[in-house]
Design brief:
Elements: E1 7-10, H1 18-31, E2 35-38, E3 54-59, H2 68-80, E4 85-89, H3 92-96, H4 100-111, E5 119-123, H5 131-143, E6 148-150, H6 163-173, E7 178-182, H7 188-196, E8 201-204, H8 207-216
Parallel strand pairs: 1-2, 1-8, 2-3, 3-4, 4-5, 5-6, 6-7, 7-8
Helix pairs in contact: 2-4, 4-5, 5-6
Length: about 230
């Protein structure tokens, strides 16, 4: 089964135009990916009739240093404008300080304006955290009702997703939430490695290339994973 069904086809460049986003949507439909992930000011999106393509939007992006009130208002507006999923950034500094109570409260406030079956993903910026901090942030996300924990914004200088971080996050949430690997996934080999250690969603900007590589991969070695 193709990994397209777990890909969030992503365009978050500050210079992206409405025309770029329209092209992203068209490509997403063509490729059969799960969703597109865009900046909040691009909403609402025009999704072709008959398509089941989901719309994800970022919140508190990319620093996570917005106040909880601002993040909550941003998430509420995005839901009102048609978003199916919200990918929020935690206050990474709070996690570094061990204040996981503040991290949880921040997430819980955003969760309160995202009614089920709408989805909340929580970006913990794993490359900037120690293993203990990754565990603490992931547990805070689960406690606050997040549907997914997500590795990275893709904008932090420390880097994006790693196999080790995804494995640790997966072990920590233990099926109570999904795990989204995002940031630096530019090949099918990397995507496959993330899935094999527990990723249940992938954030990818170069989806066409990754899926082309998948199509050329040896069909005799299926991926063990959630897709």
């Amino acid at each position: 089964m193709t990994i397209a069904g777990i890909i969030d086809h992503t365009l978050l460049k500050p210079e992206a135009t409405s025309e770029d986003v329209a092209a992203l949507v068209a490509e997403a439909v063509e490729l059969g990916v799960y969703s597109v992930c865009v900046s909040p000011n691009m909403l609402p999106l025009s999704i072709p009739a008959g398509s089941d393509l989901k719309v994800a939007v970022v919140c508190g992006f990319p620093s996570g240093k917005h106040t909880t009130a601002v993040k909550t208002a941003e998430a509420a507006e995005s839901i009102a404008l048609g978003a199916d999923e919200v990918d929020m950034v935690i206050d990474v500094g709070a996690a570094k300080a061990g204040r996981f109570d503040l991290v949880e409260a921040d997430i819980a406030s955003v969760r309160s304006v995202i009614p089920a079956p709408k989805v909340l993903k929580v970006i913990i910026e794993s490359a900037a955290l120690t293993d203990d901090e990754i565990v603490g942030a992931s547990l805070a996300a689960v406690a606050a009702g997040a549907d997914f924990v997500k590795t990275s914004t893709g904008f932090h200088p420390t880097g994006g997703a790693t196999v080790a971080a995804v494995a640790l996050m997966s072990a920590t949430v233990a099926g109570r939430a999904g795990v989204k690997a995002s940031g630096g996934i530019r090949s099918y080999e990397t995507a496959r490695a993330m899935i094999e250690v527990g990723a249940t969603r992938l954030g990818v900007s170069g989806s066409r290339q990754v899926l082309a590589e998948e199509a050329g991969a040896d069909a005799a070695t299926p991926v063990e994973g959630a897709y």
